[in-house]
């Protein structure tokens, strides 16, 4: 069964601190993995995409890693800001042919940045 | 604004009433997706269109739900005889083939 598990479920850190969010998946065959940021009451917005051959990719203060062998990804946030408070959703796409949207969503990590 | 647009943003309705939501995708995108998201959960797939053809429906989409995309552009999602369990955020996304799916802001439905 194709699944995406995220941890922790929620996280509270102080402004300026770093944090790392985890994503483990069983989706196969793997196509790509995206991290989305979803502000409360809004739709998800893509932060980064990881393909099979990529190990790490940065987008400003966000750095995503992918270990395709262990089927794990992480999202590291550096020097957190209050505006980073949001849900972060890991989404894995499988290769075409297995169903319509091919996307499996994690439940997200709810991150709260405290001043 | 050239992003995915959803209307309305919020809808409060009485149980048993029908509601209809609209989604306008990014203009060159041929794929359109509907998802439902409840509090603390990730989006759950409901249905998907490629151009005007509805290619797949999740079993979450009961007989009370119907979606259309008549001209391969905008789409509507109708819920008949709403129930309290239908309260959720309904997200629409669009993409060009298998490229990145862009999400709309969602329609938050509250059934009272």
What does this 3D model show about the protein?
The complex is a heterodimer of chains A (115) and B (112). Chain A is mainly β. Helix content of chain A is 0%, strand content 57%. In chain A, the strands form 2 sheets. In chain A, strands 2, 4, 5, 9, 10 and 11 form a 6-stranded mixed beta sheet that branches. Chain B has no helices and 11 strands. Chain B has 112 residues and is an all-beta fold. The mean pLDDT of chain B is 92. Chains A and B meet through strand 4, strand 5 and strand 9 of A and strand 5, strand 9 and strand 10 of B.
Task: Summarize the topology.
The complex is a heterodimer of chains A (about 120) and B (about 110).
Chain A: E1 4-7, E2 10-14, E3 19-25, E4 30-38, E5 45-51, E6 56-59, E7 62-67, E8 72-77, E9 86-94, E10 103-105, E11 109-114
Parallel strand pairs in A: 2-11
Antiparallel strand pairs in A: 1-3, 3-8, 4-5, 4-9, 6-7, 7-8, 9-10, 9-11
Chain B: E1 5-7, E2 10-13, E3 19-24, E4 31-37, E5 44-50, E6 53-57, E7 65-68, E8 75-79, E9 88-95, E10 102-103, E11 107-111
Keywords:
heterodimer, A: 115 residues, mainly beta, five-stranded antiparallel beta sheet, 11 strands, globular, B: 112 residues, seven-stranded mixed beta sheet, four-stranded antiparallel beta sheet, 0% helix, 50% strand
Describe the structure concisely.
The complex is a heterodimer of chains A (115) and B (112). Chain A has 115 residues and is mostly beta strands. Chain A has no helices and eleven strands.
Mean pLDDT value of chain A: 92
The 3D shape of chain A can be described as: globular
**What is the H/E string of chain A?**
EEEEEEEEEEE
Oligomer: heterodimer
Q: Report Rg of chain B.
A: 13 Å
- Category by helix and strand content of chain B: mainly beta
Helix content estimate of chain A: under 10%
Q: Say how many strands of chain B there are.
A: 11
User: What share of the residues of chain B does DSSP label as strand, in percent?
Assistant: over 45%
Task: Give the uncertain stretches of chain A in residue-range form.
Answer: none
Helix content of chain B: under 10%
| Total helical segments of chain A | 0
Total helices of chain B: the number is 0
The fraction of residues in strands of chain A falls at over 45%
Could you give a short account of the major beta sheet of chain A? 6 strands, mixed
Report the C-alpha radius of gyration of chain A, rounded: 14 Å
């Amino acid at each position: 069964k194709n699944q995406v598990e995220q941890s922790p479920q929620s996280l509270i850190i102080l402004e300026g601190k770093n944090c790392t969010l985890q994503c483990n998946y069983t989706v196969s065959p793997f196509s790509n993995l995206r991290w989305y940021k979803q502000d409360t009451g809004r739709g998800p917005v893509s932060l980064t995409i990881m393909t099979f051959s990529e190990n790490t990719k940065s987008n400003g203060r966000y750095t995503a890693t992918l270990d395709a062998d262990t089927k794990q990804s992480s999202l590291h946030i550096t020097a957190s800001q209050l505006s980073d408070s949001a849900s972060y959703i890991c989404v894995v796409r499988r290769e075409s042919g297995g169903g319509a949207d091919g996307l499996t969503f994690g439940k997200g990590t709810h991150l709260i940045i405290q001043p | 604004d050239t992003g995915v647009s959803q209307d309305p943003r919020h809808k409060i309705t009485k149980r048993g009433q029908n509601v209809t939501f609209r989604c306008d995708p990014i203009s060159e995108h041929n794929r359109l997706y509907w998802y439902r998201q409840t509090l603390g959960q990730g989006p759950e797939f409901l249905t998907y269109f490629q151009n005007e053809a509805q290619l797949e429906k999740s079993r979450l989409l009961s007989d009370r739900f119907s979606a259309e995309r008549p001209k391969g552009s905008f789409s509507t999602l109708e819920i008949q005889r709403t129930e309290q369990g239908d309260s959720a955020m309904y997200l629409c996304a669009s993409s060009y083939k298998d490229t990145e799916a862009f999400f709309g802001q969602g329609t938050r439905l509250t059934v009272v």
